Amino acid sequence: MAADGADAPSQGPVRPPVALVFATMGFVALLIFGLGMTSLATSQDVIATPGLGQVPGITGVVCATLAFAGGLWAAIARAGRRTDVEPPGAGAPQAASAAGSPAGGGAQHPSFWGAAWTTAATFLAYLGGVWFGALFTGTDLGVATAVVGRLATTWFGVVVAGAAFVSAWAGIALVRTRARRPRWPWEDEFDE
Predict the structure, then answer these.
(1) What percentage of the chain's residues is helix, strand, coil (to nearest 5)?
(2) What integer is the mean pLDDT of 74-94?
């Protein structure tokens, strides 16, 4: 079985820190693109209240990104850890043989429900960041609440939640998958 590259270090699931970085970068890219395209399509500013400046939007995106990374890390951090491994020296040969099994040998897989919780945390963090950012610029409580209420009930809120859900799902899928690189039929060594 070693001839097909099953033991190669590039095979198997993506490590959780790598998946976290890729998914977070994807989230930020989708969020910025989605908010920009929604603003273009609806001919509205994301934050339409005059005089607020860019601080509320920046604060909202930073808070949403931190919440996304924290929520996704909570969902995928234990992935790949073995639940059936004994302490070192007390049966290491059995644990090593189980690690290569197709079922994962007792490895924990993150649940896709983590995408839902990450989405909720990200959405609320975005709204909270915009609210605090608006208050920081010197606006009153009513205006800050109205801005957040508008964001939560328009397409802009849907874009934030959608970007978080898609990116979190992708991050969890990266950790769960055991896919290998694609191969052309002529790359098969058994045909030679």
Answers:
(1) 65, 0, 35
(2) 60
Q: Which residues contact 162 (CB under 8 A, 6 or more apart)?
A: 30, 34
Q: Cα–Cα distance between 15 and 175 in angstroms, integer?
A: 6
Whole-structure pTM value: 0.77
Can you tell me the distance from the alpha carbon of 30 to that of 8, in angstroms, rounded to the nearest whole number?
33
How many Å apart are CA 189 and CA 169, to the nearest integer?
A: 35
Question: Which tokens go with 40?
Answer: 């273009």
User: Which residue in 111, 107, 103 sits closest to 83, CA to CA?
Assistant: 107
pLDDT at 61 over 90: yes
Q: Poorest-confidence range of 56-65, 104-113, 119-128, 135-144?
A: 104-113
35: its two tokens? 């908010």
